[in-house]
Amino acid sequence: MKYYAAFIKMEKPELNQQYRQAHLDYLADLDEKGFIFARGPLANEVGGLVIYQADNEEEARALAEQDPYVVNGVRSLHLHEWNKV
After folding, report:
1. Which residues form the YCII-related domain (predicted)?
2. How many structural domains does the chain have?
């Protein structure tokens, strides 16, 4: 299992509230299934961070790209492998 940090940067703050519950529900479901190591908002409302647990980058990217915030262009996705120490 590898870790992937998904920075989801705010792009359209005017749409944030519209998709917030769908985003939270999506992440809660993935968390219950064991795909998330950690998640939460960044300071100053610039976006959020989700650390996915996945076998490879393709799997992590597929999970991150299905986030309602990303699907609807509310936030942009920047995914990087993360080495947990």
Report:
1. 8-82
2. 1
Domain that holds residue 44: 2-82
In angstroms, the CA 53 to CA 77 distance is 16
Residue 35: which of 73, 67, 68, 83 has the closest Cα? 67
With 90 as the cut, is the pLDDT of residue 63 above it? Answer: yes
Helix (H, G, I), strand (E, B) or coil at 58: helix
Torsion region of 56: left, alpha or beta (phi above 0 gives left; psi -120 to 50 gives alpha): beta
Question: Dihedrals φ, ψ of 21, to 5°?
Answer: -65, -40
What's the half-sphere exposure (Cβ side, CA atoms, 13 Å) at 63?
25
Determine the average pLDDT of the residues in 44-48.
90
- What CATH number has the domain bearing residue 43? 3.30.70.1060
Going from the C-alpha of 80 to that of each of 9, 15, 30, 52, the distances in angstroms are 14, 25, 18, 10
To the question of pTM greater than 0.85 for the whole model, the response is: yes
